[in-house]
Specification:
- This protein is of the alpha+beta class.
- It has a domain of 99 residues: OB fold (Dihydrolipoamide Acetyltransferase, E2P).
- It has 4 helices and 6 strands, in the order αααββββββα.
- The chain has a 5-stranded mixed barrel.
- Strand 1 and strand 2 form a beta hairpin.
- The longest helix has 14 residues.
- The protein is globular, with a radius of gyration of 19 Å.
């Protein structure tokens, strides 16, 4: 009986969502620091998504390569409270960084990424921004691979 009770207690602890209890904990940074730390900063509308990849139609660029469309990947292999809950059709200000070793662009709440409607302070510091000017390169598969 004690063994069953122990197993039930352990199972209950494993089922608790500690991220929602603790929330996302980020190191405090100013907007200029977030801009400096980011590889890419842009505003764009979510036009497609999977569990790990979000496709944006870019409106303005401040930092990085000014593509018309871009893919951003989830920061972690597991879902955490720091993940941004991107919604199709919504527009965001995205601060993205390059991951290692995959070198993919990633983001999370700690980078400063947020809905564009909540980004007035960021936009004042970022300034006007520039329109996108480049198409994303196509990745071609090699024959036999």
């Amino acid at each position: 009986m004690k063994k069953v009770r122990f197993i039930l207690i352990v199972a209950a602890f494993l089922l608790l969502d500690f991220d929602s209890v603790l929330g996302c904990v980020c190191v405090s940074a100013t907007i200029p620091q977030k801009i400096e730390q980011a590889h890419t900063v842009f505003s764009g509308e979510v036009i497609g998504r999977t569990a790990t990849k979000i496709r944006f139609k870019v409106q303005k660029w401040w930092k990085g390569t000014p593509y018309y469309e871009i893919f951003i990947y989830a920061d972690s292999k597991v879902i955490t409270s720091c993940d941004v809950s991107f919604k199709n059709g919504e527009t965001y200000l995205v601060y993205a960084f390059r991951s290692s070793p995959e070198n993919k662009l990633e983001t999370n709440e700690c980078t400063g990424t947020k809905e564009l409607t909540a980004a007035d302070e960021d936009l004042k510091i970022l300034g006007k921004g520039k329109p996108p000017t480049r198409k994303m390169p196509r990745i071609r598969k090699r024959r036999g691979s």
